[in-house]
Specification:
This protein has 97 residues and is an all-alpha fold. It has one domain. 78% of the residues lie in helices and 0% in strands. It contains five helices and no strands. Helix 1 packs antiparallel against helix 4, helix 1 crosses helix 5 and helix 3 packs antiparallel against helix 5.
């Protein structure tokens, strides 16, 4: 990656896409026997949606440290901002919905 990828927009996009991929990986690894709508309804019914969303954000930790290691500090800021957005979503799903 060149320094042109050192901007907040790249970090935001990757920080949003990585947890979505993580959510699907949790689905494929743990709940392969049911279709995706059943999986989502089961998580909502058992109040486990916020827990799975929290686990899905773990790839952002790896992205953040990679960007810090490469000295892409603006991209790291974008990943941090998207992680805060997901934290807000987790709080809303846990306490409001």
């Amino acid at each position: 990656m060149s320094k042109r990828y050192n901007n907040i927009r790249v970090g935001l996009v990757l920080g949003i896409v990585a947890p979505i991929i993580g959510f699907f990986v949790v689905y494929l690894v743990g709940f392969r026997g049911m279709n995706f709508t059943e999986y989502f309804e089961m998580l909502s019914f058992r109040n486990k949606l916020s827990s799975i969303l929290s686990l899905s954000v773990i790839p952002n930790l790896l992205l953040f440290f990679i960007f810090i290691w490469l000295d892409y500090l603006y991209s790291a800021r974008g990943v941090l901002a998207s992680t805060m957005l997901f934290a807000l979503i987790v709080v809303v799903t846990k306490y409001i919905i």
